Sequence to fold (302 residues):
Amino acid sequence: MEVVVKDVESKGVLSKSNLPVSDYSANPYIGCSHGCAYCYASFMKRFSGHLEPWGEFVDVKHWPEIKDSRKYEGKEVFIGSVTDPYQPVEEERERTRALLEQLQGSGCRISIATKSDLVLRDLDLIKTFPDARVSWSVNTLDEEFREDMDRAASIERRLAAMKVFHDAGVRTTCFISPIFPGITDVAAIIRRARDRCNLVWLENLNLRGAYKEEILGYIARKRPDLTSLYQAIYRKGDRGYWMLLDEEIRRFALGEGLSYLRNDDSFTRPFEDPPVIVNYFFHEEVVPRAKKGSAGRRSGSI
Fold:
């Protein structure tokens, strides 16, 4: 498969964020060649005007150099909210690295989300930012299933990169997302990742938009034994599976000596060893509260 890559001019790369995790978001690219079958960011096609399928185009952003980076001092910048900043094109184009270099010394805090180990290239640069955090999405240990879902780095490469960053003193998150009912083995992933992350976030698979039918079709073809479960969850709105899984993980965490929090606004809490597990199954209810709480902390009212 050939990915269509083109250069585009952008007025800027930082934008005010509505996410509770940050004050600003930054996406050095439009689109992503990882082509995750469940990617929520596929909605970007509505604004970008691309006719290519999601995963088959990448626009490389070029923005005016950030001159006064000190105005972001103390702010939180989330890199990769609707693209993977370390997708393959970054190896040659280095737009994410350019962003980091322009923000270096500004005093801002950065959070990077990726499914790649290319981020290792920039470890020394990332370490210069206060309280930097890097998260890797891992929702399976089964490479065959992973290959059905995305074209990103293998799970082993992601976990290896997580270990390097963790050992280097950078805060790391294992983002178990999206959890596929009956497929994702949450306990097995936590056991694999617990020695290389400070935080584990859990997020359930949410199906909406064009990819809802694609995922349900995949389940019908590849895992027909799970069809009735997916129909109950995604056609009838049954939350029973998630409630049972929540309790199962709580008991697992207790047995493993790990802290387990439900819907906690953990975006600014200290990172710990062993890792803290935070469940965001019903994040559509959590995000408004988290945003309010985050805003309160930033204003000094909490």
